[in-house]
Design a protein that fits this description.
CATH architecture: Sandwich
Largest sheet: 9 strands, antiparallel
Bound molecules: 2-acetamido-2-deoxy-beta-D-glucopyranose
Order of helices and strands: EEEEEEEEEEEEEEEE
Radius of gyration: 17 Å
Number of helices: 0
CATH class: Mainly Beta
CATH topology: Jelly Rolls
Number of domains: 1
Distance between the termini: 19 Å
Number of strands: 16
């Protein structure tokens, strides 16, 4: 059976073959009322299969767009295609209607609805650790980059401009491990480590909730989640 659970939180139900199998919440403390001007989400996906399927992502909400989920950013493994490294995809979206873009990495539309989606494939190494940064470029224009933690090499993911009433990034949301196309037999083994979000705002600290088996994965796949050292949560899973 093909099921969509991604929007099961009640925002919007789309018929899609994408299914969330793990969820994890994040918080940042002492966020100004106007929201954060920067947030970074570190991920390690060293053991992810080099194929289309998994999407490791964190969502965020902009001030004045509550209680909606305003957007997401994450990493998608890709098939190997180069001798100079492995290909990894980064995706940055907004679901806010009237979001606009001139960025060549971006197009109008997000998950079959309104918004903007930006994506880039870059060469990297799975064991590097990557930090996905979202920051205010100017006005209500937001830019995302992916930074290789080992080399500090930064890749532009995309930019979009939000309607003028939207503020900075609010202090909590949740992320997911998703798998596409969903079929209970399809996911191959993976593991991912979510780290606490980072921000340049002085006095603000990130934290992570416990990752949980989510939706149809609960009790059906062997997705396991565990806390590592402080601030690191990993999700491991496969159906075999
Ligand atoms: C796109 O480019 C046009 C023309 O330069 C500019 O007026 C507009 O503000 C730009 N939009 C975004 C979203 O950057
Ligand atoms: C990657 O860099 C971020 C931001 O500096 C840091 O918070 C995180 O701990 C680093 N993770 C790894 C695996 O190096
Ligand atoms: C984030 O904050 C909310 C509300 O204050 C709380 O319910 C939740 O447990 C917090 N989560 C984390 C990861 O600290």
């Amino acid at each position: 059976m093909k099921t969509s659970l991604f929007f099961a939180a009640g925002v919007l139900l789309l018929p899609t073959l994408t299914t969330a199998v793990v969820d994890i919440s994040w918080n940042v403390s002492n966020v100004p009322a106007s929201g954060l001007t920067h947030i970074g989400f570190p991920f390690s996906i060293a053991k992810a299969p080099h194929e289309i399927g998994y999407f490791f992502l964190q969502q965020f909400t902009f001030v004045n767009d509550e209680p909606h989920i305003s957007g997401q950013i994450g990493l998608q493994p890709r098939p190997d295609s180069s001798k100079n490294g492995f290909t990894i995809g980064a995706v940055f979206s907004s679901y806010i209607p009237d979001a606009t873009t001139n960025d060549t990495n971006c197009h109008i539309g997000a998950r079959g609805g309104a918004g903007v989606t930006c994506s880039v494939d870059f060469l990297g190494w799975y064991d590097a650790g990557y930090t996905l940064h979202v920051y205010k470029a100017r006005g209500t224009m937001w830019t995302a980059t992916v930074v290789n933690n080992k080399t500090d090499l930064e890749t532009h993911v995309g930019s979009y401009t939000l309607p003028s009433d939207k503020g900075g990034i609010a202090g909590s949301q949740q992320g997911f491990v998703e798998y596409t196309p969903w079929d209970p037999g399809s996911p191959t083994y993976t593991s991912v480590t979510f780290e606490t979000p980072v921000t340049v705002t002085p006095g603000s600290e990130g934290s992570l909730g416990d990752a949980r088996e989510y939706g149809v994965a609960r009790g059906r796949l062997t997705f396991r989640v565990r806390g590592l050292q402080k601030g690191l949560k990993s999700a491991l899973g496969s159906n075999k």
